[in-house]
Amino acid sequence: MVILTRYQACMTAAHEIASLLDRLSRLHGTGRRAAGLNPAQASALDYLARANRFSRTPSAVADYLSATRGTVSQTLKSLAAKGLAQEGPGGSDRRSRRYDLTPQGQAVAGALDAAPQVDLPASQMEEVRDALQQLVRGMIAARGGRSFGLCRSCRHHRASAQGAHCALLDVPLRDEETTQICQEHEPGRTEKARPDGCDAGGE
Amino acid sequence: MVILTRYQACMTAAHEIASLLDRLSRLHGTGRRAAGLNPAQASALDYLARANRFSRTPSAVADYLSATRGTVSQTLKSLAAKGLAQEGPGGSDRRSRRYDLTPQGQAVAGALDAAPQVDLPASQMEEVRDALQQLVRGMIAARGGRSFGLCRSCRHHRASAQGAHCALLDVPLRDEETTQICQEHEPGRTEKARPDGCDAGGE
DNA sequence: TGCAATACTTTCGACTCGACACTATCAAAT
DNA sequence: ATTTGATAGTGTCGAGTCGAAAGTATTGCA
User: Fold this and answer.
1) Structure confidence by residue, pLDDT tens digits, A73-103
2) Continuous H helices in B34-149
3) Which residues in window 19-78 of B are less than 7 A from strand C by Cβ?
């Protein structure tokens, strides 16, 4: 009996993490709801602002957000209806669609991160961020999902004098695309510990 | 232009944390949905399994989960309808209600943490847990919420030869209650860095 | 006895979500 | 060229969440 209640309180780290995530999810969600957007729209908007041109399709958004295509389709349509995103053909595959942010959408996406959800010392912020990245990676791995890392940390990324190149899709990459999220991302080359590749040394 | 895209990718730690929380919330939520319960019900159930008798009221659940009382009232009713919780009078105040888990409810709550959401080395698990705790505390503090820590880490907690005692409510505490969550919790005594008080030395 | 505050419930409309069915397109085998 | 099956996306449906607002019962204070 004592053992039972003791176990309930001093539970495993995994359970404790799950409980903290419960609370965090709600704290975070209610905070985001404060803006004009609802949480699902805010999440999709943030993703679209950070994903490269190969990764702004409904399917990619659905994978990234762990939602179904049907749900994401509605969310993206509502973003388009609000003038924050624009739908267009996605590439050579005529089934594919792509959603690009409009200038208004980019402005709203920029405003979202201006609203501080939490106020911690900078060093703790980085600790927390690294831990969250570990956690996301662990959960993604546990269910066989995709990593959605930054293009330039991918094992298909090639840099040359003429510019960057993706060996998987066999296409040239614009310079700024190498720091965007890619749905095809596979970790492998450098930056294993930090696949989003946000290191120092600007430029 | 380059600065803009570079900024989008290498954003502030605060924004990065927000984005990670988006993804984490969805990963966590869909994982919980896999059981028979939906996320809100799972969160409430987990809380009820860990809160002491003063803290299992609809108002406390609402505060803990950052939801409104109306929403929580429905969630708790649905838990009761499923036979996982039982509603009863909450104490001397006849307005107050209390929801206790039934044996089935405790079983389901136990099964929830048996399903591993993430698989990381133990040391990383603890790092992640500590970071999440910091984050929750920071977000709670930023919006003036309550800490909901464990009873025995509260500044109103008194230990004596006859047993534990709460100086705020002026009631004796059963032994196992001191390791449960309390809505009246105010950090202050020991364990500032770890207000959930899950230290070693297991009885 | 009022009167305001509190604890909780109920109802309402907007919305999310997953499941499912559906169309369009592609790719590969025949 | 046709068939077959997989894939990308959309539309619809019901269950459920959410916050807001109104309502009830109770408490405590004047």
Assistant:
1) 999 999 998 888 999 887 788 889 999 999 9
2) 39-50, 58-65, 69-81, 103-114, 122-142
3) 26, 30, 33, 57-60, 69-70, 73-74, 76-77
